Amino acid sequence: MTLNEIECTLRELRLSGIAATLNTRVMQAQASQQPLLETLAGLLQDELDRRHSRLTERRFKQSRLDERPTLGDFDWRFNPKLPRQACFELHTLKFIAEGANALIIGKPGTGKSHVAKAVAYQATLQGHDVRYVEADTEFARFALASPKEQTALMRAYVESDLLILDDLFLARRISDAAAELLQAIVHQRYKRRGSIVVTSNRVVQDWGKYLGDATMGTTILDRLMHRAVMLEFEGRSYRLKEAAARLAIAAEA
Predict the structure, then answer these.
(1) Do residues 158 and 188 make contact, with C-beta atoms less than 8 angstroms apart?
(2) Rounded distance, CA 47 to CA 25, Å?
(3) Whole-prediction pTM value?
(4) Where does the AAA+ ATPase domain start and stop, copy by copy (predicted)?
(5) In terms of DSSP bridges, do strands 195-200 and 162-166 run parallel, antiparallel, or are they unpaired?
(6) What is the pLDDT of residues 59-79, one digit of tens each?
């Protein structure tokens, strides 16, 4: 069997990782008189690396994250009072194994979404099924979906290892249907011990007002906070800082 035939066979067997590096590995083995088992081990590792890369990329796409942020690219010096240690503890993902939640509450522009997305991205890299949604926008999308689409969406909200509800109550008052959806999601994930990370500009004491139902607000918070950590973000807005920097550059131009 020729090298080309071997490559065709590998692709037919869906061993694209080996097929992609076969020529290189063969030349490497010939040049260094590499033992057969060592060459084979290298080819198998190539296949594993290719499959892991594809799986990681698939998880990222399914998560619906729009970027790949990390805690390392976050400017902690700008707001030194932020709960840095708690953010890195969340980044270890131990809370997912424990079925715990996290509420990241604070002023706009202080980095809540960045931290939540960094945790979500790290979870995809570690093999978790993640679902990221901008809460108010997603509730509106759900309301317009067909019954079949709603069933699929609800399954994704409930069955993922980690659900990120970003900017909850951004529009303050949400519809009755959205409030009922939020309650259902929290209730179902509570029963499954599925972790939720919520970011919001609104203090939790006012959630009942934004839901239009104090009892519902208490029920949701009771389940969210039973096993949860709360991170409070205060300080100056990163977005305003960046906007000021852009204006300063424009003025100098």
Answers:
(1) yes
(2) 12
(3) 0.80
(4) 98-231
(5) parallel
(6) 999 999 999 999 998 989 888
